[in-house]
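Structure in, sequence out. Go:
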């Protein structure tokens, strides 16, 4: 059977789907361009690497790699519950937080439904939506970030999910906690609000807020976080969600068994106990401060010193340093 006939077998929404395009591996670029040293910025990987606690645990796992992981992730959920004392049934684990975003789409979306997300939001939101045959409603950005009032106005009777990345990926913009909570009160309870907080550990103290404390008020809220960024475990693919137990139970119905590996579960549990992670933002702020004197500036509302806007042209500092 040739390629065009295979294409005829799939649903229209799959045929027209544009797949996610990850950045090329550094080794591939080195081969293509003949380079010997590359600094990769495209995927926002943590240059500080994993917690030493995680590395120590990984070195002990040789005898466990022939065994399936704990499908319920009891050890990691227990460690998470020590940080966020909600009860184990408030947690769901994923093969990265992308896995949890996909679980939401598979659980709540389908033909005849819609999901709302922002322009310049995370690329997975439209992919997950369109994969299920649902309609994506992309709301124009406000200064490269979420226009939450406009997103709320875009909700239709067939809307089942609203995606919010806070801080936003890739632009780094940020919605203050009080604005976010006020917006949640205006969203219909039958719309699942996915609060994607992959970069929340990078928030400075004066921007921090506690959405975990809102879960009783908003049973339609699902908070997604990851061990890929601040914890430096992107290669192990571990994420988690927090939400009302009834919501979590529905997501677990479509979750694949053993979706998080033994190394991922063990390393994430160990990394949670490393208090040095809390200094991540301060470390990056110190590293980024010298850039402010070299013709670079932060985008509107951006919290993370690595999200710098480079100005090109006229021999500017940004151009000279690229």
């Amino acid at each position: 059977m040739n390629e065009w006939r295979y294409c005829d077998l799939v649903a229209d929404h799959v045929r027209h789907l544009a797949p996610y395009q990850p950045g090329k591996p550094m080794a591939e670029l080195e081969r293509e361009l003949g380079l010997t040293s590359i600094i990769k910025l495209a995927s926002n990987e943590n240059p500080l690497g994993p917690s030493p606690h995680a590395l120590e645990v990984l070195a002990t796992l040789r005898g466990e790699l022939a065994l399936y992981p704990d499908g319920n992730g009891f050890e990691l959920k227990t460690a998470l519950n020590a940080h966020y004392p909600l009860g184990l049934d408030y947690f769901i684990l994923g093969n990265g937080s992308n896995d949890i975003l996909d679980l939401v789409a598979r659980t709540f979306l389908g033909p005849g439904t819609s999901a709302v997300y922002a322009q310049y939001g995370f690329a997975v939101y439209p992919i997950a939506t369109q994969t299920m045959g649902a309609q994506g409603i992309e709301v124009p950005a406000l200064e490269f970030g979420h226009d939450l009032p406009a997103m709320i106005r875009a909700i239709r009777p067939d809307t089942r999910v609203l995606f919010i990345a806070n801080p936003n990926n890739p632009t780094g913009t940020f919605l203050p906690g009080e604005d976010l909570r006020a917006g949640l009160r205006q969203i219909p309870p039958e719309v699942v609000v996915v609060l994607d907080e992959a970069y929340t550990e990078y928030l400075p103290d004066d921007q921090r807020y506690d959405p975990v404390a809102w879960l009783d008020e908003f049973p339609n809220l699902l908070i997604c976080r990851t061990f890929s960024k601040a914890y430096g475990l992107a290669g192990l693919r571990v994420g988690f969600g927090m939400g009302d137990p009834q919501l979590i139970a529905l997501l677990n119905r479509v979750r694949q068994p053993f979706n998080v590996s033994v190394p991922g579960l063990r390393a994430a549990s160990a990394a949670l106990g490393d208090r040095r992670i809390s200094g991540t933002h301060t470390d990056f702020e110190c590293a980024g401060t010298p850039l402010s004197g070299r013709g670079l500036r932060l985008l509107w509302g951006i919290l993370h010193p690595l999200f710098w806007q480079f100005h090109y042209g006229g021999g500017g500092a940004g151009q000279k340093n690229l």
